[in-house]
What does this fold into?
Amino acid sequence: MDILLSLFIPLVVWFVVFRIWPLLPIFSRDIMRVRAWPWYHTLSSFTSAHFTRLSLPQIFSLESSFNALSRQQKRILTDAGYDDKLRRGRECVSANARVVGEVGDIVRQQLGSSVGAWGDGSKDDISQLREVLRHYVRDWSAEGAKERATIFRPILGVLKLLQEGRGESTKQPHILVPGAGLARLAYEVARLEEWDVTAVERSPYMNIARRALLPSSPAVLPLELNQFKIHPFSWWWSHQRSSTNLFRAVSFPDIVPESPNLRIIEGDFLELSPQSALRTETPSPPASVLDVALPRKRDIGYDFVVTLFFIDALPNPVRTLTHIYSLLASGGVWINLGPLLYGTGGQDRVELCLDEVLAVAESLGFEFDDMRQYGFQDEREEREQGRQKTSTIKCEYTCDDRAMMRWVYGAEMWVARKV
It folds into this structure.
């Protein structure tokens, strides 16, 4: 009997694993793809209903506080227009929710899949979705043009000077822009001289939002100028001069993106290899459900790596700088601009001061250019042997330029070469 059982049990296990297990709904092929690539869940957050559900509690709380006031106090506030302000707050929630849902629908159509059926999103999504709306303003609206110009122009100007110095006979440069967000900087770099640009972004929220404007595959619906209208400041009632400013609408995109020589990699910058600088003529099979394929490997690196508000976004700047160095070709150039704003996520972090960042970079083999050769002139006591390694750029990030509170960074820019 024991012998029969010892023969029978393996057969039962084999039958369950290979015949029954794959048929169970929780282990269907689509679900396995969801688990392997969790963006299905994130895309399910891009619905009007989900955004509305997460946004209305703020309005409910404000309405509750208003209703708890005495009759005389409510009359005073009503005469001042506060009840109308609450009503407009609800309207802005609906308008923003409509755009979030439209963005999600565009990406779902691109993927050809009813991704939203795989979940209802998370209650923690609201901060990420609001951040997406603010980034649409920063990257793709006329209102964000001034903020973009402050940080884009120095980078684009240095890139042009560096490429001119390489000579006309030099091959088309390979440029990497990690932490690309909604990819406007990468787009502008690619459009500058039709250069070969690779943008990398890990955040699924940013990648989904970017796909509505710059899809990795042809868009299902044609994009129109200022097609979307949002109210990106309507949930932040502090520091506001008027309800008109608070609830003002912003339209995007301010341009209809063309098709520059721009490739998007939706993944982890730290997993890139120097060979990713080479595009493939015959793409390999899709590396994810979002149809992003990495190119074939060859011994090549990037001519330029451009980091904007990036090196402080990862927990280990030493690893980040080491990887930037490894991705550059010999003689390649790293251009950085950012304020060293470290996060507060509770994870172990290495948080370096500017002088420590520069020291680490030099220990890895970077050599810093004198910023004065690019037209930057700072009066700084910490110049080493007369060399100005960095230049201060005063800038903002997803700002409300009509609010009573402005957060201005004294961000540092530098140009360093791999030697």
Q: What stands out?
A: DSSP finds 13 helices and ten strands in the chain.
